[in-house]
Amino acid sequence: AALGEIDRAEAVLDRFVPRPPEPPGYAETIMSLRWARGEHDGALAWIEGPGARMVQEPWRGVLRARALAQVGRRDEALALYRERFSDPGNRDMLATSSYALHLGLGEIANWVVLERESGGDGAEGLAYFQGRIATMTRGGFGLPVLDYYRAVDAALRGDVAAADVALGAAIAGGWLDPITLDTDLVWRPIAGAEWFVRRRAELDAAIAAQREAIARG
Fold it and tell me: What is the model's pTM?
């Protein structure tokens, strides 16, 4: 799906018979495919309908919160984020699980964005977000998604130059996730900025190069 092969990804899923509850990655994949097609209403309908029994909490709640934000129901999304993240155990479960690439720190950042939109400062969520980045750095976490999180952190702090550098490092290191880039709320206000458009073009080029490499075998 990240490489833009949406039809192929859906064909694979169609052959899979889900047995609820499935691992959170299943629900995330279903919704990511809908977001990739621009079917934001469809993603929300799925997690509120058939998908509700496919994934357990707290993953179900944060997926629904992200889906609500994508369709503009941001007050409801914020309320749901607040409810889930009021439990520190939920924060830790999301941020340290194997599903943290989408359903962990990215959701904490979305919570910060929505808190600020509602008149708050998002300080609690931002402190947690930054603490997790520091922990991952000290632990030698070497995946390029850490550079992506650094870019998100810089954007949340208003440091455009640092966000540009970190996002570039993530893409150069092999982070190829346009769906996350399109649905993480922190980027919405700056999506038209020259540097962001440039980095998005780099991401698209890297994805195209990866698809060509796979096709060549």
Answer: 0.90
Residue 193 backbone zone (phi > 0: left; psi -120 to 50: alpha; other: beta) = beta
Query: How far apart (Å, rounded) are the C-alpha atoms in residues 55 and 22?
Result: 6
Q: Are 58 and 90 in contact (CB under 8 A)?
A: yes
Tens digit of pLDDT at every position of the chain (217 positions): 455 667 776 777 777 777 788 888 888 889 999 999 999 999 999 999 999 999 899 999 999 999 999 999 999 999 999 999 999 999 998 887 644 446 678 999 999 999 999 999 999 999 999 999 999 899 888 889 999 999 999 999 999 999 999 999 999 999 999 999 999 999 999 999 999 999 999 999 999 998 888 778 7
Judged on CB neighbours under 10 Å (0-12, 13-18, 19+), 152 is: buried
